[in-house]
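Batch manifest, entry 17 of 40.
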Amino acid sequence: MSEDDEDLLVAAFLAGDPRALAEVYSRWSALVHTLALRSLADPGEAEDVTQQVFVAAWRSRAGYDPTRSRLPAWLVGITKHAIADAISARIRLTELTDRLEGEERGRPETDLADRLLVADELQRLPAEAQRVVRLAFFDGMTHVQIADRLGLPLGTVKSHIRRSLARMRDRLGVSDAAAREP
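Output type: structure tokens
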């Protein structure tokens, strides 16, 4: 791609031309996906990050300054932030999962009111998310086992669990500090 062609593409992208977004994605999605896959070692998460990067780039295109960096370099910067966010979310999910599993083992008889409250919140989740959460926490299945059983991509299973736990935590009024304390 010549410098003039790239300049035209950038101008169209900044102007909000959806065809320019499609071209930007076509040219640099493999770069973004490769960086995400190498960092996360999870194809599903890498796909999620790739999608997040291009959505973020499109939404924040007004903040892109072509005089400061070329478009691929700007996309790599967004990718690095998205990867860091994915790793942080993975860590938080693992900690919360470990904590929930530890509480269940240490407390065989959960308070009935708490169980009813959690059951009610679980019912408010979309059907597919409910199935995923039930399989993970009540049947003790791994993310890979759930993906295989339901025929879903692994990244989708992880996203359902992450979003569902966050939604339930918010609706039940559990603060991050309370969720992390032993």
